[in-house]
Design a protein that fits this description.
- Helix 3 packs across helix 4 and helix 3 packs across helix 7.
- The protein has seven helices and no strands.
- It has 139 residues and is an all-alpha fold.
C-alpha cells in the first residue's frame, strides 16, 4: 500500500496546485517533504521485508511500473496518452518533479523523459538510504 501512496499524494498535490494556484517555492517545499516521507518509507520498510533488494522492489514497484509506462510513451508515442496510462505515471512522479527538475539543470540533455528517469533514480536512492539508516541503527 505504501508503495502506491505517491499516486494519492500526486493527485492531492495536483488538486491543491490548481485550487490555490500554488507554484514556485511552495511546490519545492512540498517536493522536499515528499522525499523526507519517502526516506521514512524506506526506513520503516525493514520491518516488513527480509532484504534490501526485496524492500526496494516492493516499496518501489509502482515506481518501476510508472517509469516503464512513461518511457514507452515517450519513445514509441512521443507524447503521453490521454487516458489513465498517461495520467497515473505523471501523478506518481508529480511530488518529486520540483526537486528533480532543479537537479536536472546539471544534466546536459534536458527533457521531461530525463526528468522522470531522474525522479525514479532519486526515489530509489532516497528509499534505499532510509532502509540503510534503519539497518545500521538495528545492528
Amino acid at each position: 500500500f505504501l508503495g502506491a501512496s505517491p499516486f494519492a499524494l500526486g493527485f492531492l498535490l495536483d488538486f491543491v496546485m490548481r485550487k490555490f494556484d500554488w507554484y514556485g517555492i511552495t511546490i519545492l517545499i512540498i517536493s522536499i517533504l515528499f522525499f523526507i516521507y519517502w526516506f521514512f518509507m524506506g526506513y520503516i520498510s525493514i520491518n516488513y521485508t527480509k532484504s534490501v533488494l526485496e524492500s526496494i522492489l516492493i516499496g518501489n514497484s509502482f515506481a518501476f511500473i510508472s517509469i516503464i509506462i512513461i518511457i514507452f510513451q515517450m519513445i514509441f508515442l512521443g507524447r503521453f496518452m490521454f487516458n489513465i496510462f498517461g495520467i497515473l505515471p505523471q501523478m506518481f512522479y508529480l511530488n518529486s518533479l520540483r526537486v528533480t527538475s532543479i537537479l536536472s539543470l546539471f544534466i546536459p540533455i534536458h527533457n521531461m523523459s530525463v526528468t522522470f528517469v531522474l525522479s525514479f533514480i532519486l526515489m530509489i536512492a532516497v528509499y534505499y538510504f532510509g532502509y540503510n539508516m534503519r539497518l545500521k541503527k538495528i545492528q
